[in-house]
Design brief:
The chain is of the alpha/beta class. It has 2 domains: 12-136 and 289-304, Aspartate/ornithine carbamoyltransferase (Rossmann fold), CATH 3.40.50.1370; 138-284, Rossmann fold (3-Layer(aba) Sandwich). The protein has helices at residues 17-34, 59-70, 91-99, 115-122, 138-152, 170-181, 210-216, 238-245, 249-253, 275-278, 285-304, and strands at residues 48-53, 74-79, 105-110, 126-132, 159-163, 185-189, 205-207, 219-222, 260-262. The chain has a 5-stranded parallel beta sheet, sandwiched between helices. Strand 5, helix 6 and strand 6 (185-189) form a beta-alpha-beta unit. The radius of gyration is 19 Å and the shape is globular.
């Protein structure tokens, strides 16, 4: 069986193009399984996975937990808000205590960029990054690229615009790396205050007009305004942001072509996306959610079959 080149999934930058293709091929097989009446396979029987979330999460945590249970893994859920972290316990002590319970894999979300990388250097278990600060969110980027491949047949040669809060988005950076590795052209679009300075060094196009971005792209992946990460005021008001960067169905229908609309969630309805756009035939947002389970099953399965 083909194997990933990595023992951990810490970020897209660490993966080869072949790694990504292998994950997609494995996800294809798992997607056919989860659409059958019996959705469970014994692939990870006797493997224990700890979901260690130091930040709030709904979709990612549930998606990982569902993927783990579909693979028959034993699952341990850890929430920092109800743990000894509140008493001052360090990250390493927390995870070592979990590992003492004979956990084989750790899925971790943390507010600090690089936390999963630190963990992977210090523990003997496979580590999956479920989002580290504003750095990376590799499984989200994989499911986004997989969804484009499913909808359009291929990622190579496609024009993908990432629109919104690029500065605070871990999804944006992982998407840029994944899409470029797979041969897509990438554009970022948003207010100048929400575009990081380093973005020019990543080989992407930069556009300040959402209308021009939509006219250019085949796929628009719309990112939410992350108010919880913003320490400063980056634009006058949500109303003004919506006026200049909000996307609605009328705007999509006025284009001279059909584009595919995506969103990693959660959607701020009425801000970056109107409800009529999010629920329109342009949208593959619910397909992304379904594909997230298959992609995470593939990642868990492939990493479990590697020796750390």
């Amino acid at each position: 069986m083909s194997q990933l080149s990595q023992s951990h999934l810490l970020g897209i930058r660490n993966l080869t193009t072949r790694d990504i293709e292998l994950i997609f091929e494995t996800a294809d097989n798992f997607k056919s399984i989860i659409n059958q009446p019996i959705k469970k396979v014994p692939s990870l029987r006797d493997v224990t996975v700890a979901n260690v979330f130091f930040e709030n999460s709904t979709r990612t945590r549930i998606s990982f937990e569902l993927a783990e249970k579909r693979l028959s893994a034993d699952v341990v859920n850890f929430s920092a808000s109800s743990s000894s972290v509140k008493k001052g316990e360090t990250l390493l002590d927390t995870v070592n205590n979990i590992l003492a319970m004979k956990v084989d894999m750790v899925v971790m979300r943390h507010a600090s960029p690089g936390a999963p990388h630190f963990l992977a250097r210090h523990i003997k278990a496979n580590v999956i990054n479920a989002g580290d600060g504003t750095h990376e969110h590799p499984t989200q980027a994989l499911l986004d690229a997989y969804s484009i491949r499913e909808k359009l047949g291929s990622v190579a040669g496609k024009k993908v615009a990432l629109i919104g809060d690029i500065l605070h988005s871990r999804v944006a950076l992982s998407n840029i790396f994944a899409l470029q590795k797979l041969g897509a052209e990438v554009m970022v679009c948003g207010p100048p205050t929400l575009l990081p300075r380093y973005v020019r060094e990543l080989g992407v196009r930069i556009e300040l007009s959402v209308r021009k971005a939509l006219e250019w792209c085949d796929v628009a992946n719309v990112l939410r305004i992350q108010l919880e990460r913003q320490q400063l005021k980056y634009f006058p008001s949500l109303r003004e942001y919506t006026l200049y960067y909000g996307i609605n169905l009328q705007m999509l229908n006025s284009l001279n072509k059909r584009i595919t609309l995506m969103h990693p969630g959660p959607i701020n309805r009425g801000v970056e996306l109107s409800s009529d756009a999010a629920d329109s035939p342009h949208s593959i947002i619910l397909d992304q959610v379904e594909n997230g389970v298959a992609i995470r099953m593939a990642v868990l399965y492939l990493l479990a079959n590697r020796q750390v």
